[in-house]
Description:
It contains 10 helices and 5 strands; from the N terminus they run H-H-H-H-H-H-H-H-H-H-E-E-E-E-E. The protein is mainly α. Strand 2 and strand 3 (566-570) form a beta hairpin. The two termini are 86 Å apart.
Amino acid sequence: MLPFVVLQDQYDIIEKHTQSGLELVEKYVKFVKERTEIEQNYAKQLRNLSKKYNGKRSSKDEPDCRLSSYQAFLDVLNEMNDYAGQRELIAENMMMNICIDLTKYLQEIKQERKTYLMDAKKAQQNLESTYKQLDSSKKRFEREWREAERAAQYAEKTDQDINATKADVEKAKQQAHMRAHVAEDCKNDYAAQLQKYNKEQNNFYFNEMPLIFNKLQDLDERRVRKLGQGYILFSDTEKQVMPIIGKCLEGITKAGTSVNERNDSMVIIEQNKSGFERPGDLDFEDFSQAINRTSSDTSLSTPKGPMDLLAKNRGKNFWLFSKRSKVNLATSSFPPFSSPPAPSPANGIPSPKFGRDTLSYCLKEINKTVKPRISSFRTLRRSVSHPTGRLTFTEDFTHLPPEQRRKKLQHKLDEISKELQKEVDQSEALGKMKDVYEKNPQMGDPASLASQITQTTQNIERFRAQLGKYEVILTSVHCKEAAEKSKLLTRVFLLSPDGAHSDESTPDTSQAIYAEFDDDFEDEELTAPIGTCTAMYNFPGASEGTISMQEGEELEVVEGDKGDGWTRVRRNNGDEGYIPTSYATITLFK
């Protein structure tokens, strides 16, 4: 590698080169600053875009929140927000690691370069000063030597002049001798100055300037190396966040693959199904006859199909196209639920045994899913003794279709149960705190907790009352649906094509069906207890399938709560029945 010293006669070139190098660093710093501004603006626009389409945080109660396509879009917006954060991180790292660092380094090398240039200028000035002294002594020597020569020529001419006196000759010789002596002194001074200048010049070109050039070369190489590192950081800064950016993009891809169109359709169906049956065919009204011969529900004339009978009680209203501000619960479908069982009837409705027709299939499916537990709990609302008030039209959701009403009631029960559990936990915590204060009075006054304990107790009673209220309403809805389903099923038995005119020799299918129900019920009676419970309130058990209990009475738990708010229990004498779950403290065996 050749040093800058070979450019000893190109000082100005080296000065301009180092200056242009510093300007290049400044230019690169400015370029990176503008890049960071672009990244920050890009990240800001991405965040605003994500915020714009994300809008307000949707509550879980909104219908669209359960759709996979909706959740996937929210995931895309969240990933885009994280992606914007990585762009901001790129801008921040570039500003810290490149702009600020290079700016600080640029100030240092500017000051260092200035020092080297000042040293070079000082050395140059010293050499020039020495040269001026040399030139002055040289000119003086030249001048004095010429004067000495003229004086010597004049003395010789005077000596040869016959007219000149001896005194003139002697004076001319003295003058020539003096001039020769002065010229000799000037000669010696010139020689000394020349020697000094040569020494200064050698020191300047072989010592001072090479050292300064080497320092400038080292400074320039360090500047180039630092600039190269800045170029690398420009790339590495973005590479460092590429894995996270890749995860953001993978998250967007995952959100896209998580979309399930079939599941979305099922969610829409589940959220919006009303529970109403499909409308049946309209009856023909023959106005040409004096009397309308439209058959009644119990007519033994030519029967209609099951769908006509299921739609019979609905009248002529087309619920699909009309307003449904009021819902007739008697026409609702029978959604899956678990309700307390009732003893099977002793004698079922006579009906022939069908083959593989639609009615037989329906009966078998109903037998698989629903057991005739309780015919009605309509009196339960009036029979339950609980300190509750009346519910308004919207509080009991009577304005909703049957299926939607059942879901709203169940959701309300879940919310009240959560709030009740919070209050119970708070009550236990206040009780423990009161015990601590009583044992250690210096920690606090137990009386200060009295108002909080009272308020918590009132809240617990209020939530328990609300819980009992809504459990009664939900049970009533279930029972109404079960009763209506049983009623419609009876009509299907009576008016089926084969069953309406069956003779005595026809086997009785209903007896076999209810016998099967009785067998299932007997099997449940033989089940071993799974826990114990203690009654917290009095329960009259006035409806079929329920059992009365007194406050503080202990019972065995035979069947746990299936989510419908009822628990099956047994007394010591073998009596079994259902009680509201919230009316007892239940302890299950491990």
